[in-house]
UniProtKB/TrEMBL annotation:
Residues 1-59 form the HTH lysR-type domain. GO terms for molecular function: DNA-binding transcription factor activity; sequence-specific DNA binding. InterPro entries: LysR-type_TF_proteobact-type (IPR058163), LysR_HTH_N (IPR000847), LysR_subst-bd (IPR005119), WH-like_DNA-bd_sf (IPR036388), WH_DNA-bd_sf (IPR036390). Gene3D superfamilies: 3.40.190.290, Winged helix-like DNA-binding domain superfamily/Winged helix DNA-binding domain (1.10.10.10). Coiled coil: none annotated. Belongs to the LysR transcriptional regulatory family. This is LysR family transcriptional regulator.
């Protein structure tokens, strides 16, 4: 049985995937941390990491160790925070992983409200255009645009949202009207970098038969700013439009896409009252905020 300090250091290295990153979190010298990990592996008689210039990647034994160490961490936190699940409010730190559209335009308002209601709660939003690995504890919970079917996960649909083609009023005044989908061939398209689309649900332009993407980014926020600057036509979330004056939807009756957000949690966390209370509040807030923003743009 390993002591808690060993597990704490191991968790940091596993989550940060490097000694330098874990050292910053723990405020420890990376060389010291490397010696501690080597000693841990020697004590266990197994390799927990594959070391390379790119960092520390978990072996199969390391992944198994991560699951058990994370379970020990949750038990430790439950003992240290006996009041965090009471009516007095939530406390501690909770990290949410989310695609950047949700992270930029919806989550800030919802999390700000939750923080005001729970002064002892610290909320972290990690905005990354990729799928989060909850087994590696990159986040306590994640928001996704599709429901994963593998892994020990609990998935809950949060809300549907809609997307439409849009362009800036300045661009439309210069380039002329767009009366049909066929007209899009004569206009530069703004969208995702094709080989960086991390979920099939985000391949909007393929569904429209669009070809070349003249201006591309892996970030929804960057795409929106490209459209605002008159870069061309792109598919945008309706909930983003209240933040983009001068951008308006086109072909509204012809092109309308519907997608959904899902809350994804590790199965073990479903038994943690503190995280479950936060998840319920988060889902309620996201549903209300998406509905509010889409009404504002109607």
């Amino acid at each position: 049985m390993q002591n808690w300090d060993d597990l704490r250091l191991f968790l940091a290295v596993a989550r940060e995937e490097s000694l330098s990153g874990a050292g910053k979190v723990l405020r420890l010298d990376p060389a010291t941390l490397g010696r501690r990990m080597a000693r841990l592996e020697a004590d266990l008689g197994k390799a927990l990491f594959v070391k390379s210039p790119q960092g520390y990647a978990l072996t199969a034994e390391g992944t198994d160790m991560l699951e058990r160490a994370a379970a020990a961490e949750r038990a430790m936190l439950a003992v240290r925070r006996p009041a965090s699940g009471t009516a007095e409010g939530l406390s501690g730190q909770i990290r949410i992983g989310a695609p950047d559209g949700c992270a930029n335009f919806v989550l800030p308002q919802v999390c700000a409200a939750l923080a005001r209601e729970n002064p002892a709660l610290d909320i972290q939003i990690v905005a990354l255009p990729r799928v989060f690995n909850l087994s590696r504890r990159e986040a306590d919970m994640a928001i996704g645009v599709s429901a994963p079917t593998a892994g020990r996960l609990v998935v809950r649909q949060i809300t549907d949202y809609t997307l439409h083609l849009a362009a800036s009023e300045r661009y439309l005044a210069q380039a002329g009207g767009i009366a049909s989908v066929a007209d899009l061939r004569d206009h530069p398209m703004v969208g995702y970098i094709p080989d960086m689309i991390f979920d099939r649900e985000l391949d909007y332009l393929a569904d429209l038969g669009a070809g070349r993407v003249r201006l591309a980014s892996n970030s929804v926020a960057v795409q929106m700013n490209m459209i605002r600057q008159g870069g061309g036509v792109g598919v945008v979330h309706d909930f983003c439009l209240p933040f983009a004056p001068g951008v308006r939807r086109i072909l509204r009756d012809t092109v309308s896409l519907r997608r959904a957000f899902y809350l994804i949690r590790h199965a073990d966390d479903a038994r943690t009252p503190r995280l479950s209370r936060f998840a319920d509040a988060l889902v309620a807030g996201l549903r209300a905020e998406v509905a509010r923003l889409q009404v504002l743009d109607a």
